[in-house]
Amino acid sequence: MMFIEHCNKMKKFLACCTQQENEDKRDGRRLRRKMVIVGDGACGKTALVTRMATGSFVDIGYIPTVFETDMTEVNTGRETVDLVIFDTAGQEDYDRLRPFSYSDVDVVLICFSLTDSDTLLNVMSNWVPEIRYYCKDAPIILVGNKKDLRDPELSTSCKSSTHSLLTDSPAAESAAMQETSTARPTSVFEDLIRPVYKVNAPVKHSEGALIAGRIGAMAYFETSALKGDNVEELLLATTKAAVLGIKKSRKYRPFTDTLRSWKSVQALRGKNS
């Protein structure tokens, strides 16, 4: 009897949730989507989250995050979305706790540091398997952080583009093959990562774009939380991926068109303000 009563209560609860969701749609209320950000410790996740949520950079030194949540309002031009951001811990000590933040996730950002190629190696060996296991139906966007620290280390011949919406471009893969060393990393993913791996070296745009294509990411962005480079574009692409879902997000053209029209709207607002 207790079990039957519990099941009936659960059915009523689920029915109420469904009814509330339908009422939200009829009333035109805002959508709410959940984003989870993962990556190695000290790769710039929390600074990026703060920039996305508040629009400012806060330098408080490195304080390891356990779990933090923020929410920001994103206007995509067609709809206003409340994006809930879950910032997670990258340390191994929290490997058992981190999966609790993956429930009902709509989009995942996998981050690495553009100043350290080892963090890109960990994307392949640690983060992609974990996300594919717990969040197999969620779109993935690969993000390179600390662009402001990486750029001075690269030669002037580095590509100027800092985000790629067509991550499976053959040109990007060819460029990465020519520009990088064939140092052999000690990883089970060495066949995938070898063409772009250098020990403790800065990561070029073409290298990150190549890995993004190989892990099936929806897009690849290089950002600077300090200067705000590409943060707004990333926020928009993340929101659109969360709304569309993994199947529709694989059609890259809507992302390209959306970013183009969104930039035009922002430019017009800047002139009128």
TrEMBL record:
InterPro entries in UniProt: P-loop_NTPase, Small_GTP-bd, Small_GTPase, Small_GTPase_Rho
Region (Disordered) residue spans: 153-182
Pfam short name (any one): Ras
UniProt protein name: Ras-like GTP-binding protein rhoA
Domain of life: Eukaryota
UniProt KW keywords: GTP-binding, Nucleotide-binding
GO biological process: small GTPase-mediated signal transduction
Regions of compositional bias (Polar residues) in chain numbering: 154-167
One term of GO molecular function: GTPase activity
